[in-house]
Specification:
Number of helices: 5
Structural class: alpha/beta
Order of helices and strands: HEHEHEHEEH
Distance between the termini: 70 Å
CATH topology: Glutaredoxin
Shape: globular
Number of domains: 1
Length: 176
Amino acid sequence: MINLNHFHNKTIKFLFFFIIIFLLGCNVINEDNTSNRNININDISFPEKTISGEDFDISEFKGNNILINFWFPSCPPCVYELEILKKIDNDFDSTSVVGIQMLGLDTKDDGIKMLKNKNILYPSVADEKDEIVLDLNITAFPTSILFNEKGKEIKRWIGIINEEDVEKQLQEIRKD
C-alpha cells in the first residue's frame, strides 16, 4: 500500500526543487546576442519618469557607458542580480546602470519596494507598453545590455550578469 501523503510530499518537494533550479538556471544561459547591435540607445523611447515618480532623461548619462538591466521583482535571478548591478554602478564611474522593470506579474509598487529593500539607488523605469523590450528584442529575464558612450550596443548578457565579465568588457572599451 502506498502512503499518498508521503508520495504527495515527495512530489511537491521535487517540483519545488525543479522550479528553483529552472529559475536559477538562467545563469548558464549567459550568452552574447548580437542581433540588435545596430540600435543606438538614443533611438529608444524611454519613459520620462522613474517607477518612483522622479524625472528621467537617458541623455543625462551621455558620455558614459550605460548598462541597461531588464528585471521584475518576482524573478529570483533578477532579484539576486540587483546586488551585483549595485556594485557595478558604485564601482565604475564611467558606467551608469539603468533598470527597466517589466510589468505584468508585478506592479510599480512591487518594484519600488524591492529597490528600497535592496537599497538600490540607480534609476529604474517601467516599460509599461513593452516598447523597449520590443525595440531591443528582449526574450529572457534578466537581460543586461552594455552601451558605450556613443550609444552603441557593445555586449548583451542573458541571465545573471557576472561582475568580472562586465569589468573585462569595460576595460576593452577603454582600449578602443
